[in-house]
Every structure is written in C-alpha cells, then in structure tokens.
TrEMBL record:
Residues 1-25, 95-115 are annotated as: Disordered. SUPFAM superfamilies: S-adenosyl-L-methionine-dependent methyltransferases. It comes from the Bacteria. The keyword Transferase applies. InterPro entries: SAM-dependent_MTases_sf. This is SAM-dependent methyltransferase. Keywords: Methyltransferase, Transferase.
C-alpha cells in the first residue's frame, strides 16, 4: 500500500519574494530568526547578561537577540549589513521599550560593520555613570560557516568586523562566536548542501560550508582573542509547512549565491526536495540541529 505521505503532492514554492527585501525581512523575522532562541538563551544565561551588561550585537538582524538581552536589563547596541533588517530592529526595539532602568539608554543601531567613531559613541552611550565607556559583551550569533579557515576576503572581513567591535570592549569582556555543529548532527545540512552545490560554479565565498571542529577558535585567534570556554546548544528548525520552511531558509541569506548562480525558482524547488524527508505526516517540517558557540576574552 503506497504511503499517502510519499504520494502527497509537494508544493512548488515560489522564491519571487527573495527579490523583495521587505518580504524577505518579514520572512526572517516571522519564520527563521526564532530558530536560534535556544542559542541566545544559553549564552545569556552562561554570561549572566542583565543589568550592568553593555552588549553589542554584530549581525543583529531584525533585533530578536537584542530584545531578549534588553528584557534581561542589558543596555544594547547592534549593527547589521542589511538595511531592511536593521530598520525593523529599530522599530521593534522602540516599540518594546522594556524593563530598562531610568539610566539605561535606548538601543543604538548602525548599518554595516562598526567603525571606530560609531563604536566609541555607542560604547559611551551604553556605559553607566560608574563605568568606563566600553562594551562588556559582544555577540556574533549569526552562524559563521567555516570562516575560521576561509581564505581571502571572507576571513579578512570576519576578522575586521571582530577587531572593530572589540576595539572599545572592556579588557576581559566576552566575545561570543557561533557556528553550525557537526553536519551529522544538523539535519538542515541536507538543504544547505543544495545551496553550496548550486553556487559552486561561482566559487562564492558566502555559500555554506560545514564547520570544522576548531573553526571558531581559529577565528578568535586571528582576531587576537583568547578562548575561554565553549558549548553546544540544540536548535531544532521547525516549520508549519513546506512553504514556510523554504521561505524561512531562503531568508537566511545562505542561498543567495545559489540564486545568483542559477534560477531562484530552481533553488526553491531543490530546497523543497531536500526537506521532504523531514516533513511529517501532518505537513510540518522538523529538523534537529546542534549549534556551537565559543566565548573568547578581549
């Protein structure tokens, strides 16, 4: 007897939304960003982020991690290279308000990597009256796929961003780097390999690669940081249906090189095919994943 799940007609997701930054940003904020909440929570708990913490989020996206830190009482700042995501983060932080103390400043957000002038201004704004101006925690939660061993521009860009961010971080301050866990423990790897394969003709530096065991440590070393502990966190990716899964993954940016090298519709079709083994009988998509984080010190 043929399984109804096998015979179910799979949706043919459209990726036309990827050409619209606003739609793509909403997909990120409404579908994909929350998948890393267990990572944010684990790091904040381990570092005891709260009142007195002055936090800078690199690649802050649409601001969910910053919102969570602010809810714990931290003063937050953030940067991102995507203007649409950054604008949404600004609106969300302004609307949320949160349990900030009377002396806690509003969040400061900057486009691109933090240059020294912006970092100095943001750090001074985040400092309370009794503290020297400087961040106490810097986070790079957006997974860094194999940048610890990536040659050329990718490695240089990662080191440059970290160097700029930590230049005004207090001595002994924590810098958190995050990356994918071993491919065999990340069910999403099957979909991410689709993007890597389709982007291969471009030799694109931003396509996904599996992380090596010591990649985060190598990146920290290149940035002049001292490793001070690490951890692994389960971050399952769960979606209401196949269309949401495809839209969420496309919003991550990990398939941009594949879309440039081929046809966006083809990329979406092949992602859906890779996700099919992870689709349950009720239509939901569930993929267990493990993420790794490294805490380094300035």
């Amino acid at each position: 007897m043929t399984s109804t799940l096998v015979r179910r007609r799979r949706p043919h997701p459209s990726s036309s939304h990827t050409a619209d930054p606003g739609t793509r940003t909403r997909d990120w904020a409404e579908i994909q960003e929350r998948m890393l909440v267990p990572l944010y929570e684990a790091v904040y708990e381990r570092l005891d982020v709260g009142a007195g913490t002055r936090l800078l989020g690199l690649g802050c996206g649409s601001g969910l991690a910053l919102l969570m830190a602010a809810a714990r009482g931290a003063a937050v700042c953030g940067t991102d290279t995507d203007p649409s995501r950054l604008e949404l983060a600004r609106k969300r932080l302004a609307a949320a308000g949160g349990p900030r103390g009377a002396d806690t400043p509003p969040a400061r957000l900057g486009l691109g990597h933090p240059d020294p002038a912006w970092a100095r201004e943001a750090a001074e704004a985040a400092a309370d009256a009794r503290a020297t101006a400087g961040f106490t925690v810097v986070t790079a939660f957006e997974p860094l796929p194999a940048l610890g061993t990536a040659p050329g521009a990718a490695m240089a860009a990662a080191v440059s961003a970290l160097t700029a961010a930590t230049a005004l971080t207090e001595r002994g301050g924590a810098v958190v780097l995050a990356g994918w866990g071993p491919p065999e423990r990340c069910a999403t790897s099957s979909a991410l390999r689709v993007g890597a394969r389709l982007a291969d003709p471009m030799c694109a530096p931003d396509r996904w690669r599996p992380c090596g065991r010591d990649d985060l440590e190598r990146l920290a070393e290149h940035a002049g940081l001292r490793p001070d502990g690490s951890g692994r966190v389960a971050c399952p990716f769960g979606y209401a249906d196949m269309d949401s899964a495809v839209r969420g993954l496309l919003s991550s940016g990990l398939f941009d090189a594949a879309e440039r090298a081929t046809d966006p519709a083809q990329v979406a079709k092949e992602i859906a095919e890779a996700l099919h083994p992870h689709q349950r009988a009720d239509g939901t998509v569930w993929m267990p994943n493990v993420f790794r984080y490294l805490i380094a010190r300035v």
